[in-house]
Specification:
Blueprint lengths: L8 H6 L6 E9 L4 H15 L8 H11 L3 E6 L22 E4 L11 E7 L6 E8 L8 E2 L2 E8 L8 H13 L6 H14 L2 E3 L5 E7 L15 E7 L5 H9 L1 E8 L2 H5 L3 H4 L2 E7 L21 E2 L3 E7 L3 E8 L5 H5 L7 E7 H4 L2 H5 L8 E3 L10 H18 L6 E6 L6 E6 L8 E8 L4 H4 L1 E2 L6 E5 L7 E8 L5 E7 L2 E2 L5 H9 L3 H11 L8 E2 L2 E2 L2 H9 L6 H11 L4 H12 L9 H18 L1
Parallel strand pairs: 1-2, 2-3, 6-13, 10-11, 11-12, 18-25
Antiparallel strand pairs: 1-4, 4-5, 5-7, 7-8, 9-16, 10-14, 12-17, 14-15, 15-16, 18-19, 19-22, 20-21, 20-23, 23-24, 26-27
Helix pairs in contact: 2-3, 4-5, 14-18, 15-16
Organism: Kordiimonas pumila
InterPro entries: PLD-like_cat
Protein name: Phospholipase D family protein
Length: about 600
């Protein structure tokens, strides 16, 4: 169980096992904070540097360049969060290809939270996989969650139990709503094929493992058959029908643990099926209690874990633990409109514990209190109507009928570009304000109304052009609004955008030399050698420390060993010289670089 105090979940998942290095990853999530995704490649860079430097802007830039192509994140369309930024940040533009928006057919939502990560040995001779199945989205939400981390090695034969898992990754490209990215599609299929051959190490005490895709024929999930002796359900969102079906699958439904608002909305006859109805204690709703709540560490949103526990007996007592993304709702389990993933683990109760241990003092017991079934939920009709309006509007923006797109063109003001939104926005019932702006810019100065008859146009430097557009929808109800990001198709991106982004970060001669040294580092040596950072991370440490490094020696070594890498230096010099107001490439370097360009030309002749 993940305590809200824990903020290291994704970084620990990316940490390679001893003797291995990160290669690539595919992740899925219902909602996502771009800031968290931006931090993933930076963490990989800092980890390679053994944590010996701070978040240097140049290191961030180089980390994004090296790692963003290897990480793909599939997210429910309309559920990308608007990043909280104090100032404009052009680096978000690097995420356009990393983020793939998807939607579930049949009116459901794309809800799985999974990371599949491939690690390889430094010489590429061995590969292993890590699978992280979560109930937490890729956000900074401070809730009580659950995660399962499995590691496995590639074997010479396919594993039957991995069929649902392979099918899951294989179908991801078919769910994408945007223009197909052939590299990302190939990556998803590559993972699907490889996962067939992974043999997973089971958590201690468990003897059986299975993957399930609720609603997908052949890979669906059903509670243990015959009936379990006991059952407990942990789910933040519930529906009467789903809980009643689950209760019929067990002789005794011992406990239902949910959020108070979810419990209040259930029928009394449903609540009466469970011996105990529990919710988190108010003190557990914060990071260590109300007194620790600050602007930086706000209140937790409460329970977010999804767990189904069954106890069965077959010559011995067994515990079945099923966890993943599926809430105890019709959309997730019965009607199965959503796309979900569940993992079931089975072990002897004597080894892994059971429901009593979960609810006991050493489990969640100290954080739980009984729910008062006599409480009647107070229905705020006006709020419900406003919530329906804002979700209908969000669904239109995220739906298949939306044809919004972006087009870039030179602006009337020299050196600026116009980013024009094309596509008709219909009347949005109940929406009194609708604004949009590129997430690379700040909303205070660049938000544009979507409800006026005027064209939606933003003017900005080339560095801040992006297809990631933030939307804010407001209703008459002061507490009901929606804020989200869409990755809109974009045409006419100026060729100098990448160069312009570079120029915003590398804005002086010292920065150029430091970034060049990062660029010359070894792209594959990410591990540690004798406790010291190796590869390009070595330069990250030494450059950040202000150490004098012989640039000529490094260029010569690269020319001798990996001459093809000097094409990156050539592109860097060209990009930073193209339209730059200040000379960030030192004249002394240009003179030296001409010698290498000449040598490269002779070598290739």
């Amino acid at each position: 169980m993940l305590n809200p105090n824990s903020r290291s979940l994704y970084t620990s998942a990316l940490t390679p096992p001893p003797g291995m290095i990160f290669d690539e990853a595919v992740a899925t999530t219902f909602s996502m904070d771009p800031v968290l995704l931006l931090e993933a490649p930076v963490y990989l860079a800092l980890m390679a540097a053994d944590g010996q430097t701070d978040h240097d802007p140049l290191a961030v830039l180089e980390a994004l360049r090296r790692y963003s192509k290897r990480i793909s994140v599939y997210v429910q369309r309309g559920r990308i969060h608007i990043p909280k930024i104090a100032k404009p940040n052009p680096l978000f533009g690097f995420l356009e290809n990393t983020v793939i928006e998807v939607s579930a057919p049949g009116g459901g939502v794309f809800h799985p939270k999974v990371w599949a990560i491939r690690f390889v040995s430094p010489d590429q001779s061995r590969a292993m996989y890590r699978l992280v199945v979560l109930s937490r989205n890729m956000t900074t939400d401070q809730s009580w969650d659950l995660s399962l981390q499995l590691e496995g090695s590639v074997v010479g034969h396919k594993s039957e139990l991995n069929k649902p898992l392979a099918h899951f990754f294989d179908m991801l490209p078919d769910l994408a709503t945007g223009v197909e990215d052939k590299e990302r599609t190939a990556q998803a299929h590559r993972f699907a094929e490889a996962l067939h051959y992974v043999e997973w190490e089971l958590p201690e005490g468990f003897d059986e493992l299975a993957f399930h895709l609720p609603g997908v024929k052949g890979f669906d999930w059903e509670p243990p058959n015959p009936k379990a002796n006991r059952m407990a359900v942990i789910s933040p969102f519930c529906s009467d029908d789903a809980l009643q079906v689950l209760a019929r699958k067990s002789i005794a439904a011992d406990a239902l643990i949910s959020r108070p608002e979810s419990l209040s909305a259930l029928k009394q006859e449903t609540l009466s099926l469970f011996t105990r109805r529990l919710q988190l204690d108010d003190a557990a709703e914060t990071e260590g209690g109300e007194e620790n709540t600050t602007a930086e560490h706000p209140l937790s949103t409460g329970l977010h874990a999804k767990v189904y526990l069954f106890e069965t007996r077959y010559y011995s007592d067994y515990t079945h633990l099923i966890m993943g993304s599926a809430n105890a709702t019709n959309a997730a389990l019965n009607a199965a409109k959503n796309i979900e993933i569940l993992v079931s683990l089975v072990g002897k109760k004597s080894k892994v514990g059971g429901i009593d241990e979960l609810l006991g003092a050493d489990g969640l017991g100290e954080y739980l209190v009984d729910f008062d079934v006599s409480n009647e939920s107070i229905v705020d009709v006006e709020r419900q109507a406003a919530e329906a309006d804002v979700e209908n509007a969000r669904n239109w923006f995220a739906g298949p009928d939306t044809k919004l797109s972006l087009e870039c063109a030179p602006a009337t003001k020299e050196s600026l570009w116009s980013l024009v939104m094309a596509g008709e926005i219909p009347p949005l019932e109940g929406i009194v304000s609708a604004k949009a702006w590129p997430i690379t810019l700040h909303s205070d100065n660049h938000s544009t109304s979507l409800l006026s008859s005027e064209p939606v146009v933003w003017e900005c430097d080339a560095a801040y052009i992006t297809g990631l557009i933030a939307f804010e929808l407001k209703t008459n109800h002061p507490d009901v609004s929606a804020r989200f990001v869409l990755n809109l198709p974009i045409t006419g991106i100026p060729g100098e955008r990448s160069a312009a982004i570079l120029q915003t970060v590398i804005n002086n001669q010292e920065g150029f030399i430091r970034y060049l040294l990062l660029l010359l580092g070894d792209d594959t040596a990410q591990g540690l050698d004798g406790g010291r950072a190796s590869g390009w991370a070595k330069w990250l440490v030494r450059v950040a420390a202000g150490e004098d490094i012989p640039l000529l020696e490094e260029l010569t070594r690269t020319f001798s060993r990996q001459p093809e890498r000097l094409s990156e230096v050539s592109r860097l010099v060209r990009d930073l010289s193209n339209g730059a107001e200040n000379a960030v490439v030192p004249d002394e370097f240009l003179g030296m670089w001409r010698v290498f360009e000449s040598a490269i030309g002779e070598r290739d002749a």
